[in-house]
Amino acid sequence: MKEKEREEIEKWIEGDESGAEMLSRVSSVRPFVFPPPLHRVPLRVGNVLELVGPSPSAKTQILINAAITSVLPKPYGGLDHLVLFLDLDCRFDITRFSQLLIHRITQHGTDSYDQALYHLCMARFLYVRCYDSFEFLHTLRTLHCRLEKEKEVQGVGVHVLMIDSIGAFHWMDRASMFLSQRETSKKKLFLQTVSEAVVQNIKKLLQVHPMLIMATKSVIFGNRYSTASNEVKGNMEERCSKNMTRNHQNFQYREYMPSVWQMSILVQPIIKTPQPTCWNGYCQN
């Protein structure tokens, strides 16, 4: 053991460290410090973070801000790493990403931005678009080679994997379970099988490429008064008054992803938006 390491261990055992020194040391080695609202979440390599919220709750915007923080160099308040962004709902706006990146760069300098720095950050942002579960699984299985190649080319590795709209293919896969007998030539997808394959591939990827996983998921609001048993009870006025209520206690978050995916999540912040309006169990923002 080196003398310097021995001295550090002895100092740690003796406990001759003030609270301010401890906070300074911990903050300096903390791998991920993202802009709000993620600044309150203690994230580490290997964590799986799922951002849950309705459609207009800026989940993708949160990913964009975190991605910009990751690709920016440390003098600009960044983490100096690569980011891989998997777009499953095919609605990512690269123009918006570019505008926010330029804004972050100009915050640390003059009104004009450094084009060389801009191109460096854009090259560090790796974007992949998937159109169905087959492409998504194929992408996960082939990421190892791509990550190795990008690390050799750019000199830094991917430390954040972002999956926008993890449940984008859920309903298509669910519908494929009810294919008619004449379509037996097509390979059927089963929700549990797809989710198990996704989780297994992510775990294998984390073993060779330790990184943070960040995923977004749109929620489904459920109204506890919209069940069949309650609809047959009472008169029409009572049912309407219950369905039209705006009390947040009447809304329940209905999970639709298979349990194998839910068990892999370590952190799940809920992104709040203005309370939706409901009618007969259907909620709309």
From TrEMBL:
Question: What does the entry give for GO biological process?
Answer: double-strand break repair via homologous recombination
Task: Check the record and name the PROSITE patterns matching this protein.
Answer: RECA_2
The record ties this protein, via InterPro entries, to: P-loop_NTPase, RecA_ATP-bd, XRCC2
CDD domains from the UniProt entry: XRCC2
Instruction: Offer an example of a GO molecular function term for this protein.
Output: DNA binding
Q: Provide the RecA family profile domain boundaries.
A: 23-285
Q: Which Gene3D superfamilies match?
A: P-loop containing nucleotide triphosphate hydrolases (3.40.50.300)
Looking up SUPFAM superfamilies in the UniProt record yields: P-loop containing nucleoside triphosphate hydrolases
Any GO CC annotation of this UniProt entry: Rad51B-Rad51C-Rad51D-XRCC2 complex
Name it.
RecA family profile 1 domain-containing protein
What is the scientific name of the source organism?
A: Phaseolus angularis
